[in-house]
Amino acid sequence: MSSLIRALLGMRGVTVDGAALRSRLEARTVVVTGASRGVGRAVALRCAGAGAHVVLIARGGPDLEQVATEVRAAGSAATTMTVDLRDTDAATAAGERIVAAHGAPALVVSNAGHSIHRDLTGYTDRFHDVQRLAGVNLLGPIALALPLLAAMRAVGAGQLISVGTVGVGLPGPGWSVYTATKAGFDAWLRSVGPEIVGDGVAVSAIHLPLVATAMSAPTYAGSRMPAMSADDAASWVCRAAVRRGRLVSPWWARLGAVLTAAAPAASSRWAERAWRRRR
Fold first, then answer.
1. 30 by DSSP, 3-state: which?
2. Per-residue model confidence (pLDDT) at position 10
3. How does 37-61 read in b/e, with b if 16+ C-beta sit within 10 Å?
4. For the ranges 114-128, 175-189, 222-236, 261-275, the one whose mean pLDDT is highest
């Protein structure tokens, strides 16, 4: 039954044209953030299978080195970079080092993210939580992207894919900081996209529903809610790399975003009732 529900909700993986993906990525550089596990790891291995040189970025640790080993086992080159995106100077320097060593990347997958499920009362005296998520989800990704986008514009080719959340269009109680920081990066992409598309650089946003990863486990462990697998989510990213579409999201998320924007008062009342029932 859960498989049927996932299919009806558009939460399954998609078919990716392997030949087209290889045509775009073979022998080219792909940058993946949050690459040590979950969706980032799955995307990195897909890109490795397409013959890309994968630059793996994460905060470090044995998991990152293990992914690099898996990429090399697939016959592709791997470079690891230990970067904490909360350090924006380090993120900018990482982007500059990538360009200096490998030139303009063909694809940047901005996947790294951090999430907390906490209501306003829970972080009223914890502003550092806001700063931490803003660093990982908004400021750090922009700092890393700026030198990479400049290099891509200079050669007239490339793509930046943001891996985000359906919460961007469907914000909900308890997710205020996570949604705000993810939505900020999404809005930045929407704004810069028209500026750089004429230079041959595409931007794409993936709005994922719940994905069964280590990041979601603390909140949804044991939940009966349908969830995507990391590999299914990676297939969305790879299809976006082939088709270069502006937005990839489930049909219900797009519909919900339209209804929420069209009837803000009603959607706010519904969210309030849902929040009170959960407390």
1. strand
2. 75
3. bbbbbbbbbbbbbbbbbbbbbbeee
4. 175-189
User: pTM for the whole thing?
Assistant: 0.92
Domain residues for 72? 2-250
Half-sphere exposure for 28 (CA within 13 Å, toward CB): 18
Backbone angles phi, psi at 206, to 5 degrees: -105, 120
Count Cα neighbours of 270 within 13 Å in the Cβ-side half-sphere.
11
C-alpha span between 67 and 80 (Å, rounded): 9
Give me the CATH number covering residue 164: 3.40.50.720
For residue 205, which of 147, 164, 170, 159 has the smallest C-alpha distance?
164
Number of domains in the chain: 1
Taking 70 as the threshold, does the pLDDT of residue 258 lie above it?
yes
Domain assignment present for residue 140? The answer is yes
What is d(CA 85, CA 104) in angstroms, rounded to the nearest whole number?
A: 20
Q: Each residue of 190-221: pLDDT tens digit?
A: 999 999 999 999 999 999 998 877 665 566 65
Q: Which residues pair with 69 in a beta bridge?
A: none
Residue 265 lies in a domain: no
Q: Is residue 226 part of a domain?
A: yes
Is residue 67 one of the residues assigned to a domain?
A: yes
Residue found under tokens 């690891």: 80
Pick from 114, 131, 141, 117: nearest CA to 205: 141
